[in-house]
Amino acid sequence: MSLAAKKKAAASKTATPKTGTPTPGSKASSKPSSKTGSAASTPRRGGASTPISVAQQDLQGLHLTEQVDEAELQREREKYRERPVPSMKQEELIAKVKADEEASGKKNISLVVVGHVDAGKSTLMGRLLYDLGELSEKDKVANERGSSRVGKSSFAFAWGLDALGDERARGVTIDIATTHFQTPHRNVTLLDAPGHRDFIPAMISGAAQADVALMVVDASPGEFEAGFDRGGQTREHAWLVRSLGVKEIIIGINKMDMVDWSQDRYDDIVDALKPFLTSAGFASAKTVFLPLAAMEGINVAEHNVPTAGSWYKGPALVDALDKVAVPERPYSAPLRIPLSNVFKGQTAVASGVAVQGRLASGVVQVGDNVRAVPGDVVASIRTIEVDEDTAPYAVAGQNVTLYLAGVDPNQLSIGTVLCPLNYPAPLVSKFVAQILVFDLQSPIIVGTSVELFHHSINVPATISKLLAISEKGQVIKKNPRVLQKGVTATVEITLRPATGSSRQAVMPLETAAENKEMGRVLIRRGGETIAAGMVTELL
Ligand SMILES: Nc1nc2c(ncn2[C@@H]2O[C@H](COP(=O)(O)OP(=O)(O)OP(=O)(O)O)[C@@H](O)[C@H]2O)c(=O)[nH]1
Question: Positions of the region Disordered (predicted)?
């Protein structure tokens, strides 16, 4: 699939509200980037993506508009419910997955790109894709033309990566776009994160899915400092990605052309970042620094530093990515697929309801039946797409598009978790978490209202009890009255019903001990990330 087409697909899911945060279900959009056989042969209709009922969808799929033959409709519905049979038992599948990985010599990793606004993230990724042959000359020329028309000709490479329309006019990335590329030993899924403060919720969704972060900083005079100061996004992004479980980080010190490849400037930036990254929880062995000039493609796909930069002997970006450690994937744990997208509206029922997400744990194959929670809906996996290609199975760590049979799209939403039939994730309205408190404007007290982020959703919640403050694993204070910046605390968190609803709010959640990825939460207040933590007990 061409990059332009991929971008179009990515752009089709950019429904993040420009101010405020996305709410569950708000990203549902028209249609995923499908090219499965069944989808291709399925009649599709244009039009608005307002949610429609299953019956209406059936009508669309069958091209019946007014005269409805109920019996015929029923037969068609039954047909949709015909399920492919899984070809392997779970244990067989896990063994095959491991053997396939061994044989391919390539491992899958997901990369999130973060950094202060305008640091050059999109330019860098555009350049990398171009140098790796993923962005054609034609795409690049079209991008150059398009971007100079709106008076931003230096954005030519970024153009390739940023989505369409609104985003182009403003020159700011507003939602996660995914693309794939390969290094000699890695298949990389790239999640391009927006740098703008308002868009951090979208970044959280990307970072929650990543194995490694590429943090881009701008070496130009004054710019690194602006991004690193309080209020700049460098610090918050580093905290966020680490809190979301990303252990490896590559720091691309970009725009070295602006400082004539000065080693002093590079060293100063490294010296400022190192202690900060350690305090944010990145082990120095898992931190790589490299100088770059993204626009000119220097030190991106090859170690081609100019004479002024001959002091640099380390890896080019592509070599650093090729060495990213692949975490042990929890294949044998029960399946958990938190959905990051549900395509409501135009998707015809015959090809299944299209959803996207990342396997937090477990394995799944075509024909498997899964239970969707909340809602307790049973669906059958009709088709699996990994990297836009159909696949017989998918495993923990992969981002997938799934086509589900036997389910109404309105029963699913962003945040729904697909689970095995006999092992659904528990639904929780209150839990205990151990949290690390970030930089705060005002302290956390009992009753503090927050937004709770878990994978791709955020829900209103209250810090209902402050249970303890600990240091190095020891409780140093019980029932504190306030939590200040920098402390590790045990708190009770209670979900609040959505505005206007009297129903008790619940969400699928597990303790971190049970399932690391399902037990990680982020806490924000008033557009600021104030804490991150692990669920330790479900109440
Ligand atoms: N001199 C110089 N300018 C660069 C380089 N890389 C990027 N730029 C410029 O920096 C500006 C911002 O680049 P983008 O790639 O849009 O930055 P971004 O980090 O993706 O920005 P957001 O999407 O808004 O977060 C553009 O004008 C680029 O042309 C570089 O290596 N050298």
Answer: 1-87
* pLDDT tens string 235-272: 878 887 887 778 899 999 999 999 999 999 999 999 99
Whose structure tokens read 């429904």?
15
Compute the distance between CA of residue 356 and CA of residue 273 in angstroms, rounded to an integer: 35
Ligand 1, residue 125: give the atom nearest the CA: 15
In ligand 1, the atom with minimum distance to the C-alpha of 298 is: 31
Q: Is 293 in the pocket of ligand 1 (CB under 6 A)?
A: yes
d(CA 173, CA 191): 12
Does residue 121 have its Cβ closer than 6 Å to ligand 1? yes
Q: Are 521 and 428 in contact (CB under 8 A)?
A: no
CA 138 to centroid of ligand 1, rounded, Å: 21
Strand order from edge to edge, sheet including 248-254: 177-183, 186-192, 107-114, 212-218, 248-254, 287-291
Three-state DSSP class for residue 523: strand
Q: Is the ipTM of this complex over 0.90?
A: yes
Give 214's strand partners. Answer: 113, 250
- Sign, CA dihedral 395-400-402-408, equals positive
Confidence class for position 202, pLDDT limits 50, 70, 90:
low
> Does the Cβ of 317 fall within 6 Å of ligand 1?
no
Query: 473 or 374: whose pLDDT is higher?
Result: 374
Instruction: Give pTM, 2 decimals.
Output: 0.66
Rounded distance between C-alpha atoms, residue 101 and residue 313, angstroms: 32
| Residues 170-197 pLDDT 10s | 333 334 446 778 899 898 888 755 544 4
Of ligand 1's listed atoms, the one at least distance from the Cα of 115 is 19
The tokens describing 31, both together, are: 């249609």
Amino acid at 355: V
Give one DSSP letter per residue of 121-136, joined into a string: HHHHHHHHHHHTTSS-
